[in-house]
Amino acid sequence: MVAEEQSALTDIRTRLLENPMSGRATSEVDVAREIQRLQSQLGTAKEEDKAAMFQQIDHLASLLDQIRAQVARPEVNPDSPYFAHMQLKEGSRRRDVYLGRATRLSHGIRIVDWRNAPISRLFYRYEEGEEYAEEVNGTVREGEVTIRRTVHIESGTLQRVDGADETWVRQNEGWSPLSEEAQTLAGGQGAALRAGRGQSASLGSGEKLRADKHLPDIAALIDPEQFELITGPESGVVVLRGAAGTGKTTVALHRIAYLNYAHPNDFPAHKILVVVWGRAMRDYVAHVLPALGVNGVQVSTWERWARSMVRRHYPRLPQSVSDDTPEPVVRVKLHPSIAEELAEMARSPGQRTPEAALEDWGTLLTDKARLTTLLGDDITEPQLDKVVDWCTRQWNAVNAWYEGDREVDARLDPEDDALLLRAWQLRMGPLRSIKKRPIQYAHMVLDEVQDFSPVEVQVLLEAASKRRSVTLAGDTRQHITQHAGFSSWAGFLERIGVESTALNTLAVSYRSTHPITQFAVSVLEENEAPARTLRDGPPVELFRFSDHGATVAFLARALRNLVDTESLANVALLTPNTDLARLYADGLLAAEVPDVRLVENQQFAFKPGIDVVPASEIKGLEFDYVIVIEASTAHWPDTPHHRRLMHVASTRAVHQLWLTSVGTPTSILPEAE
Known about the structure:
Elements: H1 2-18, H2 24-41, H3 47-72, E1 84-90, E2 93-100, E3 111-113, H4 120-125, E4 131-136, E5 139-154, E6 157-162, E7 167-171, E8 174-177, H5 224-230, E9 237-242, H6 248-262, E10 272-276, H7 279-291, E11 298-301, H8 302-313, H9 327-333, H10 336-347, H11 354-365, H12 368-375, H13 381-402, H14 416-428, E12 443-446, H15 454-461, E13 470-474, H16 489-496, E14 503-506, E15 508-509, H17 514-522, E16 532-533, E17 541-544, H18 548-565, E18 570-575, H19 578-590, E19 596-598, E20 609-614, E21 623-628, H20 640-650, E22 653-661
Parallel strand pairs: 2-3, 9-13, 9-14, 10-11, 10-12, 12-13, 15-16, 17-22, 18-20, 18-21, 19-20, 21-22
Antiparallel strand pairs: 1-2, 1-5, 4-5, 5-6, 6-7, 7-8
Helix pairs in contact: 2-3, 5-6, 8-14, 10-11, 10-14, 11-14, 14-15, 17-20
């Protein structure tokens, strides 16, 4: 197999190098000139000759369109011309077709672009030895796929060959076979379901568990430490700190169920608020709580809750929100000293009106001298000038709108919601319900607290009842929101006025296996030891490819096999951005991988299948299998933010974690991988 592919590569590279495509421009000019020559002769040509001339012009025009289309396409790179090889047998005829990033069909070369060549469907839909019947370019093609291989070619050298039953990799000393187990997703179906009795929640028990994953009965897996926190005192703030998978959200939600059950009069469901980081967790929690016997709890994201409160308390403000706020403005508005200065301003004598609260907000953000003192070295003078200019224009527009001028383009920034609500609380007192009564939540849960700014947490804490029954859950290692959140528990608790004795650490990680947990901690470059794990599992694997098409082909095969053997498994393909998410979702769908879903706006189905989604959208969720797509330097630069994001992405995996890379692998990854 290796010898065949080596021979084919040598032949194709020779043909490509001996027949470069640089002559296409000349042929285009020649064809265009011939069309012009024929057109100029039409006026003097005999009537009986014109039909043939028109036919020849049409043929040349069609040829010109093909040449120009070919010029617009990328050229085949001789150093990495293709990533897959298939041989098709149709009757007595055999044809070798190669899949790459560009198309070249000349001089005995048959390389097609995997993204748009109809014949590439045969590679993605059929295995070696399978018969096919597909319509290709309007013709039904029937035959057999006699060869189906993926290859990795780097700098013109064959590095790896994957066949139907064997894989060979070039090593320093020659070619070596790669074990099949190292390339298989298996054994983790249902691991993320967390349902049933303890013994039925083991790996591979997915068929005994719920398929929809919406209603996990996880009470059987609560440990004694978690139980103590769930059933602890009903008053005061409880802070849950722990690594990914240690059960912070589990404890928080079961604490709601316990309080509502044990003290129904003090903790009615409609007076309980759960604030989560994103829409996906909101939808998940909204389904979990009824399964725990609690109906009617308000579950919201911070953005949704805060926006509704601003509209209620400041009905005369503009409703439009900016989506292009400059980074320095975001940083300043989320800076802890801004909220502290608002509190200082509210202590001075003045009116207790919404207008006074609004005046505090506008005055503070446009006072350069005061901001200079408050921010110190946290911002440069040019950046501060940009902030003051932005906020001054914003303040003037908002003032005009408030007074009734609808001609101005008045917008608030998303970060203003917390500041305006805090200004109201400081000047006017508690936030109000629709019926104008003070809001006092009997119990409140704030999940992923490390990604909230101190002022946002202060606003929420002030909305709690006098009992101040609040659960804060978070992990500083999973802090991924830029310019918000915190990295130190001690400093954060001091800023929001919570005693450090409220801090509880969950030490056992129940979600991920030991290899995944070790990997996730290693990408952080911290000295802290990983949480204790209870399960071993397959090693974390990194797979390198020459093209995304090759990656899609490899994953399509692995995922089809997984779906066949573990129909209840849920898989997350985590990409660096939405463009790659669409590319991989389209590629897997074209390869007829079942149950592939492109997740947009965090609208997860929470059921078996394959979710393709940017890595930044999955905080708080878990999956049986996780594949991090394109873990390359280009998409994962070595920054603290990207290290934490890789940590979060990795710890979504319960049973097995893979990474792929077309480019140079990111230095975030441990050398051992």
